[in-house]
Amino acid sequence: MTARAPHPEPLQLITGEAVGGDPARQFWLLVGILSILFLLSTLGAIFLWWRRTLSTDAGDFAFRTLARRLGVARRDRSLIRRLAKIRGSAPVALLVSPSALRDAIETCRHSKEADLDRDSLDRLMERLAGA
After folding, report:
1. Which helix (H) or strand (E) covers residue 105, if one does?
2. What is the pTM of this model?
3. Domain for residue 10, yes or no?
């Protein structure tokens, strides 16, 4: 008599939890990961912007800071930059020294090459130079 090999048991498919897990859990995990990535990229962008503002010219940084604190309007800031360029001095020097600003304005009033609005110069003179 020959020995018969026992029959293997039939394969059983085990069902239960899905292979990927609970769909709601996967959704919230994805939301969490995306939120962290968004937060990190936002913080990175803020950090790069902050570093860029610090890495600019120190004189320009001083001018922007002082002009902002003095409440100088943007159009007046550009006017002061143009006055400083015509006069050959730093823009921050015109904010720090009212006499330097008065001299620059008077120089531009008498200069034929300076194409600046007289009313803007008068307003700037009243606002910052106290004249």
Report:
1. helix 98-110
2. 0.55
3. no
